[in-house]
Amino acid sequence: MQDKIDLRELAVDRPDERGSSGIHHKRHFTTRYVVPAILILGFVGVLGWSLKDRLLPAHNVTVVPVHVTRSQSQQAGTPLFKSAGWVEPRPTPIYVPALAAGVVKNLLVVEDQILKKGDPVAILVSEDADLIRKRAQADLQLAEAERKSAQINFDKPVHLQAALSEAEAQLAKANTALANLPFETDRAEARLELAQQDLQGKKNSTGVVSGLEVDEAQSEVKSASALVQELQSRKKFLVAEQQALLLRRDALQEQLELKTEEERALLKAQALVAVAQVSLQEAELAYQRMTVLAPRNGRVLNLLASDGTHVQGGPGMGGKHDGGAVITMYQPEKLQVRVDVRFEDLPQVQRGQPVQIESPAVPNPLKGTVLFLSSLVDIQKNTLEVKVAIESSPEVIKPEMLVDVTFLAPSRSDTTNVSSESVHLYVPKNLIQQDEDGAFAWVADQQSGVARKTRVETGSRGSRNLIEVTSGLTETSKLISSPVDQLRDQIRIRVTGESPAPTDANSSPISP
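Below the sequence we write its predicted structure tokens.
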């Protein structure tokens, strides 16, 4: 009998087929799908990044670089550069005008003569001005007489009182006539009655009295009867006349109390006196202006008129200021130098900067101070006029003298004895824009190919077309000059051209 075979000994431990098949399936999915997908996406990304300039739209723009100037900061008092200049009055020559038009009779001054305020400079022909003054005096006297007459009429209106008295007399006469009317009527009636009796007696004595006497008696009766009728009808007319005279008297009484016309005449006369006084003052002033006076202390610079010259007393031909001027003056203690400074030296010039002024007429240099940079540019010489004040000018220094001006390094609170270089950045003014947050400029980021809205701060230096930028930009910054209307921050751009750095040679730099 054979031994029993234990089949369990033949069993082999195998992993679970379900678990092994899941792991095998995940390995196949990763190697077959995920890894190729990552490789494909990476390749597509690299390809898209390399072709982004062609695939994505970009705005074509032109840029302009920043204008960079460098100035060497020297130790205070160190000479920087030298320029030529001309002495001139500060701030301008003093024009001495004839304040009234006329002809110069006598010119009383010469060039370089010292004058004090109020000294006579010239005398004009004054005969016509004197006649006008005398006529104004006569007009004033006439106006004064009219005013006195009007004042008397206002204070004592005798003409109104006479008219009122006449009206009262007429009213009294009418009242008397009206009061005597009854008595006159009774007398007329008695006369009529007597005439009637006389007529009746003569008619009764026929043959004794002639016919002529009878006729005369009848005529007397008619006359007495007419008188009675007249007196009886006269009353209503006398009453009407009385009322009219009463109204006239009251009107004249009110006119006397108000004196309206007399007051108007007085006010008019007073106004005419005032007008005459002003006319006389004008005539006196014109007569006084026949002598031209110096307006202040100083020296005569130029003679603009001579004996026989007609002066306008105002702007002359073409509106020139010297149309009525007789001379020009200057004050020796107030002189300045008009210096022509080259454009490349302008960054070293600022207000209040010390200078030295040299002239063959004086043995030692004079001290001066920069007043301001003017706006007058000489395009041919590429220079700008700088005004320099002479601190204490000797008497020998005269206007229009040629001098040499040496500009010195100014004293600064932050400077040391070691020279240092300062860099200034300038950009066109039209490229600096403003919004609610302040000033900004569109800067081209050529490495990223986008436009960046960069905040900037501007300084006080600049010129007519350029302005200094103190922060926000670097020497290598490129500003987008056109077009800027459709730009926004981080928008893609393509630089198609670059303009040269601005120099602004035709405008005048301005220092603070």
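The chain has five domains: 61-70+420-498, 75-90+334-408, 99-124+292-328, 130-153+267-288, 158-258.
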